[in-house]
C-alpha cells in the first residue's frame, strides 16, 4: 500500500503551506464581510460585485487546502497533534468558505434594494450586528494563528451577544414592516442579511471549537448557550382598526 | 512513519461501515425534512420536537464518519478510486448534517407560529416546494447507493425548478404581507422555512457533484444554472392611498 513517492518537503513546510492558505482565506473573508455590509449601507453595486467575484478564490483555496491535507494524511500517516493540525485546517477552511458564501448572499441583495424607501434608518441595526460578527471573526483568526485557547473560548462565549442582538433586530424589522407596508420588501432582504451575519458569528464559534480540539485534543462538548430566539419570536400586529 | 497497528478488518469492510453510517444519516435526513414540514402544516409541536431531538444522532454520525475516514486514510494510504470513496463519504456526511440542521430550524419555527392568522392558506407553497426537495434528496441518496452518474446529473439539473419555485414563493409571501399586516410575522417565518428547504435542494446538488467526482475522478466544474432569483427580487407595494 505504501507509495513510492519521493518526499522532498518537510512536514513542517507542508503545515506552513496550509497555514498560509488559511491566512489568505481569513483575509478575504474579513474583507468580504466588511465590504458586503458597506455595499448594503451605501447601495454600492460595484462593491457588491467585488464581494461576489472574490468568492471564486475562496472556493479554490478551500479545495486546495482539502486536497493538500488529504494527501498529507495519506503520505505522512500523522498521529495525535500532527493529525489534529491537518484536520483542523480542513475544518477551518470549510467554515471560512461558508462565511464567504454568506457575505456573497448579502452582497447579492444590494441589487434588490436600490432606490428603496427609508433605507438608511433601517440599515443601522444590520451595520451594528455586522461590526460584532466581524470583530469575532478577526479575534478567532488571531486565536488560531497564536493557538490561543483563552481567546478562542472568549469568542465562543461572546456569540450569545450576537444572537441576542439578532433576535432584537428581527423584532425591530418586523415592526417596521407593520408600520408601513412600503418597507416590507426592503426589510425582508435586511432580515436575510442579518441572518447571514448572525451565522457568520456561528462559524467563528465553530472555529473556536476547532481550536479547542487542536490545542487540547478534547472536543468542546458543552452546548453553547444559544440566545438567538428569533426562530421562536413573534411580533403582534396592533392597529386602532382591530 | 508506518504504524505498527495490526489491521484486522479489510478495506472493503471499512468502506461498508462508512456506507452504512451514511445510509443511516440519509434515512434520518429524509425523515427530518418530511416531518419538519408536516409539523409546520399541522402546527404539531410534539412532531417538531422530535425533529429537533433527532439532530443529535446526525451530529454524532457525522463525527464518526469523519473520524473513521481520517483514520482509514492515515492507515491504508489509499490511492485513486479508494481515496475518492473515503473523501466522498466525508463530503456527503457533511451535506446531510447540514440538511438536518435546516430541517431543525424549520421545526423550531413551529413554536413561533402557533395559533397564527390565516395559516393554512399560506403554508401551501411551502409544502409544495418541500415535496420537490424531499424527492431530490431521495433520488440523490439512491444515486449514491447505486453509483448512478446519470441520475445524479438529473438531480443536479433539476435543482433549477426548486430555485424557480422558491423565487415565486418569495414573491407570493411578500404579497400576503402587503395585503394584511397580520400576516407579517407568520409569513416571515415561512420565508425562512422556504429558504431552508431551497437550501436542502442545494445540498442534494452538492451530493450530485460528489458522485460525479467519485465515479469519474473529475470535478464537475460547470456552473450550475441558478434560478433562485429571490435575492434580487422586489415586490412593489401599491395602494389606492399612494
From TrEMBL, chains A, B:
| Pfam families in UniProt | PhoU
Give its localization: Cytoplasm
**Gene3D superfamilies, from UniProt?**
Phosphate transport system protein phou homolog 2, domain 2
Q: Name one GO biological process term.
A: intracellular phosphate ion homeostasis
Nucleotide-binding as UniProt keyword: no
Q: Name the keywords, alphabetized.
A: Cytoplasm, Phosphate transport, Transport
UniProt-listed NCBIfam families? phoU_full (TIGR02135)
**What PANTHER family does the record tag this protein with?**
PHOSPHATE-SPECIFIC TRANSPORT SYSTEM ACCESSORY PROTEIN PHOU
**Subunit notes for this chain?**
Homodimer.
Q: What is this protein called?
A: Phosphate-specific transport system accessory protein PhoU
Give the species this sequence originates from: Bauldia litoralis
